[in-house]
């Protein structure tokens, strides 16, 4: 059986009750932001390419209230925070806020520091159902929830939602030290229920792709429960390889490269790893565009084929899969009714996403469990809406 996700209301109730117990009054503001699963377009965001994620029913809720004191106090019930689940700080202005310990608080501090104005001190409680370290963007959910909380608290919003996503990305770069692309913060901010989002990471133009006629099909997320280590050098090393390939080709980014450029890299004696990394990015950008067309036409067979090709390229050319992810993907593909399966997120661990017929879900889960050496968790991914205030 797939894990049942708690409804927004029950997550909200838990946060409100904890706030009342902790701070002795009722919270005045309640918001949430979703995690996401990337359907296709992996390691393309920082190459100015296309991505095609959708928001999940897994969410991060923040409830709170401003006060006249100086201290901002935050309690997190998320199970990843470690021993220190509370922190407080004082700052004269947002420019004085600096990253520090505990680490999880840096995402929040980074958003306050990058908000459009100073906000008064507040108390808040955070509850999240997005698993961390799984490639489902728990960090972006926390950032975008924080930013949405600040908007509601202050009654001020940036002129365009794009600026909100960019401010959250800056928080992740400067305060969490993760040089991530723009995909995660965008989808958590902009997603619409029932749609995937095609995002052009070069000019930040978005297109909502309604998932019509999905009726008989569903996306299944499988958490390998082998956490990925993102800030580990592997992500940055891949990124640098891509920048190096673009530099050799005299292009601004690999977005501007094609298969002839891959041949040019070979003839210029670029290293094998540079050629392979670049080939993944060039082919993955095209696959993402093709997948968006397939989804618009409700051609799920074609969408599934592209997912398979994406995984194989991530495994062989980008070399970011793991034996756990490969075994989950191979097992899924063996089941009748599965259209495609791939790793999702940065790789090295985390989750896979599988497109399959609804009536094949139970037997697929059973088969994957039997074939996998570890203990996987399964979630049904329904395309959900973006960050918002909950009344
Ligand atoms: P995950 O592994 O889902 O956190 C990371 C990056 C994305 C993108 C993907 C690879 C962070 C926070 N996110 O996603 O921007 O580059 O890898 O497609 O680093
Ligand atoms: Mg993350």
TrEMBL record:
One of its GO terms (cellular component) is cytosol. Residues 106-191 form the GHMP kinase N-terminal domain. The keyword Lyase does not apply. Residues 292-373 form the GHMP kinase C-terminal domain. The keyword Glycoprotein does not apply. InterPro entries: Galactokinase (IPR000705), Galactokinase_CS (IPR019741), GalKase_N (IPR019539), GHMP_kinase_C_dom (IPR013750), GHMP_kinase_C_sf (IPR036554), GHMP_kinase_N_dom (IPR006204), GHMP_knse_ATP-bd_CS (IPR006203), Mevalonate/galactokinase (IPR006206). It comes from the Eukaryota. One of its GO terms (biological process) is galactose metabolic process. GO terms for molecular function: ATP binding; galactokinase activity; metal ion binding. PANTHER family: GALACTOKINASE-RELATED, MEVALONATE KINASE/GALACTOKINASE. Belongs to the GHMP kinase family. GalK subfamily. This is Galactokinase. It comes from Mycetomoellerius zeteki.
């Amino acid at each position: 059986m797939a894990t049942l996700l708690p409804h927004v209301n029950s997550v909200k109730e838990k946060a409100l009750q904890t706030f009342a117990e902790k701070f002795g009054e009722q919270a005045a503001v309640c918001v949430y932001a979703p995690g996401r699963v990337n359907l296709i377009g992996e390691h393309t965001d920082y190459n100015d390419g296309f991505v095609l994620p959708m928001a999940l029913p897994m969410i991060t809720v923040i409830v709170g209230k401003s006060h006249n004191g100086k201290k901002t106090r935050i309690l997190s019930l998320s199970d990843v925070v470690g021993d220190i689940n509370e922190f407080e700080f004082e700052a004269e202005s947002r420019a004085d806020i600096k990253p520090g310990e505990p680490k999880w608080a840096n995402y929040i501090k980074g958003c306050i520091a990058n908000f459009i104005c100073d906000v008064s001190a507040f108390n808040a409680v955070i509850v999240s159902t997005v698993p961390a370290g799984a490639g489902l963007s728990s960090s972006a959910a926390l950032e975008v929830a924080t930013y949405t909380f600040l908007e509601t608290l202050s009654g001020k919003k940036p002129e365009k939602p794009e600026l909100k996503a960019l401010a959250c990305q800056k928080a992740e770069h400067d305060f969490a030290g993760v040089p991530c692309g723009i995909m995660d913060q965008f989808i958590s901010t902009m997603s619409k229920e029932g749609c995937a989002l095609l995002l052009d990471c070069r000019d930040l133009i978005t297109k909502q792709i309604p998932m019509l006629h999905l009726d008989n099909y569903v996306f299944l997320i499988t958490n390998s429960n082998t956490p990925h280590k993102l800030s580990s050098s592997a992500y940055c090393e891949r990124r640098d390889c891509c920048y190096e390939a673009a530099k050799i080709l005299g292009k601004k980014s690999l977005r501007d490269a094609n298969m002839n450029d891959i041949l040019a890299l070979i003839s210029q004696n670029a290293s094998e790893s540079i050629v392979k990394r670049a080939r993944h990015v060039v082919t993955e950008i095209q696959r993402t565009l093709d997948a968006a067309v397939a989804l618009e036409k409700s051609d799920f067979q074609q969408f599934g084929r592209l997912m398979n090709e994406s995984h194989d390229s991530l495994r062989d050319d980008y070399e970011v899969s793991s034996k756990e992810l490969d075994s989950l993907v191979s097992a899924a593909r063996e089941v009748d009714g599965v259209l495609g399966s791939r790793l999702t997120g940065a790789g090295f661990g985390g989750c896979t996403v599988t497109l399959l017929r609804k009536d094949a879900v139970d037997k697929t889960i059973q088969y994957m469990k039997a074939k996998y050496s570890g203990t996987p968790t399964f979630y049904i991914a329904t395309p959900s809406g973006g960050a918002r205030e909950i009344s």
